[in-house]
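Example record

The entry below shows one chain as it appears in the dataset: sequence first, then structure tokens.
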Amino acid sequence: MRREQTSGEASRESNRTVATVALEGGYESEAAFSPAFKRMVGQPPAAWKRAQASR
């Protein structure tokens, strides 16, 4: 399973910060994680997380 997919699932299933999920997903920082997440999902992780929370 790809890091971004695993990290996306972790973001959706928890109250962890994007930075925490990034580090747990094997990224060196939130700055390294955010562009990879955006390429896969189509929006930055914080925006995606807010959208998921409003569902």
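Notes for this example: The chain has a mean pLDDT of 80. The two ends are 25 Å apart (CA to CA).
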